[in-house]
Structures are given as structure tokens and as C-alpha cells.
From TrEMBL:
Organism: Flagellimonas sediminis
Lineage, highest ranks first: Bacteria, Pseudomonadati, Bacteroidota, Flavobacteriia, Flavobacteriales
One GO BP annotation of this record: Gram-negative-bacterium-type cell outer membrane assembly
A GO term from the CC aspect: outer membrane
Database matches in InterPro entries: LPS_assembly_LptE
Entry protein name: LptE family protein
One Pfam entry name: LptE
């Protein structure tokens, strides 16, 4: 009987401790007083960077991926305007370059690189605003076509880019 009471007291203490942690959650995000977030459409301007190409729907897919990341890791509500936290920017690079060569001077591996320029505005804490470029890559066998690896490449690149953006904007450890 005494063990049950001690367990209940310990459980109650843990619940009170966790509820007293304020605006932090298990993802490590510090949303402060913010209640809403907004992710404006990331236009694809990659073709303005030499060697880059335009991929249809890349802008939409990346925008949705960033929205999903923030939505899944915070208790913030997504809104179309007047968000407490605002993310906007553009895709500025999307290109494939050869990375390694074989002994007979043929390309063995290619690298797909994607870069986005992000502007983050925190209407509750303007000191946290920033503008930064984020970039990540995906290496693949040169014998494979870009279209054959694109789905896996986008999944990996989007996951890393959105995580980096999330950490820069809300990961105030």
C-alpha cells in the first residue's frame, strides 16, 4: 500500500514538473507566447543560379514539407495570414554535379544540391528574426537518372532542410 502511495506522489510530481515547463515541448522547440505559424509559398528561383534546373511542383512540395514539420513538432496552429511566426523565402539552387570519377575518367557518383533562402519573423520576439540560406545534398549513382532517384532525394533533402530551419527558428536550447 505504501509503495502505491509513493508511486502516486512521484507520478503527480512528474506531471506537475512537466506542466511547469512552459512553452517547451519534447521536440525542444521554444514557441514562447506564439499560438500560430504561417509558411508562405516558397517560389522556385533556382533557374537564376548557373547550372540549376527547375523541377515542377518542387516549390509546393517543399512548402508543404516545412508546414508539416512545424505542425508535427509544435502545438502551433497553421494560419494563412497574420501568423505569430512567419516563414518565407525562395528556392535558390537545385542542381546536379558530378562528384567522383572512375579510373577511366567517367562519373561514378552525382550530387543533387538544393538550397533555400529563408526569412523568419517572430512577431512576439522580433530579436529572433533572421534571414539565412540553408542547403543540403543527396548523392546517387551516376548510372541512375535524376527522375529515378528524385522521390528519395527529395524526402532526404526536405527532411534535413526543414529540420535545420526548425532548429534555427525554434530550437533555442
Amino acid at each position: 500500500m505504501r509503495i502505491r502511495n509513493e508511486f502516486r506522489v512521484a507520478l503527480l510530481g512528474l506531471i506537475l514538473f512537466l506542466s511547469g515547463c512552459g512553452a517547451y515541448n519534447f521536440s525542444g522547440a521554444d514557441v514562447g507566447e506564439a499560438k500560430t505559424f504561417q509558411v508562405n509559398f516558397f517560389q522556385n528561383y533556382a533557374d537564376q543560379t548557373p547550372g540549376s534546373i527547375i523541377v515542377p511542383s518542387l516549390d509546393r512540395d517543399f512548402t508543404l514539407s516545412l508546414q508539416d514539420m512545424i505542425n508535427n513538432l509544435t502545438s502551433l496552429s497553421l494560419t494563412g495570414n497574420n501568423g505569430d511566426l512567419i516563414y518565407e523565402g525562395e528556392i535558390v539552387e537545385y542542381k546536379v554535379i558530378p562528384m567522383t570519377a572512375t579510373s577511366d575518367q567517367r562519373t561514378a557518383q552525382n550530387r543533387l544540391t538544393m538550397s533555400v533562402n529563408v526569412r523568419f519573423f517572430n512577431t512576439k520576439k522580433p530579436d529572433n528574426d533572421f534571414e539565412r540560406r540553408f542547403s543540403f545534398f543527396y548523392d546517387f549513382d551516376a548510372a541512375a537518372s535524376l527522375t529515378s532517384v528524385q522521390s528519395a532525394a527529395h524526402e532526404e533533402i526536405f527532411e534535413r532542410l526543414t529540420q535545420d530551419i526548425f532548429n534555427a527558428s525554434l530550437g533555442n536550447w
